[in-house]
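I'll show a typical protein example:
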Amino acid sequence: MSLEEELAAQRARAFQKRSPEERVVRAGAIADTARSGLAEGALSVGDRLPRVVLPDLSGVLVDVNHLLESGPVAIAFYRGSWCPYCNLELRALQQKVGAIKGLGGSLVAISPELPPRTESMAAASTLTFPLLLDRDNRVARSFRLVHEIDPRVVRYQLGNGNDVAAFNGAKVAEVPLPATYVVDRSGVIRYAFVEADYTRRAEPDAILEALRQCVASSPVTLKS
């Protein structure tokens, strides 16, 4: 089953559980985000990778720019462990870790969520790639991805026990748009998936193909 098929099944489950009023509110919030032009204004193909140095779940700083010395890097921005679409995405990416490493590439995922909940999710899904903490969405802002969740949606989230602001250690519920980038060894973005609809994600096979193209076009032999 493709990631999109899994996401579609989750969309159907969520739709069935929600009241007609909640469905209208959530659909309207997605439409508002799309109309804002945020996705179109985010970093895209041809842009250079900003400085990305963030702690992993152990508190060790990971310099994503340094990872480029060994090969291309895939970067996935996700909203948090509370988001079922994010969980599906991360599990799908985990299935491709071996193939990514086989290409000499690296994979990292970035969210503003504080470690405790992220650690539980990583353990439950047996994730082996770095999950990086972007406190206050500092790095996501440099990619021009950050938006505040519609307050009407926040009320529904709180009713479901999901206090996103508290999960992030913030005053407001801000998250990055779902976004995936593939960056070549020179630090240039060669693939970009940025979506206003948080239920849509990049297919892992598309990410792999972008990594392959980076490797094929690289003038430098990748380290084993």
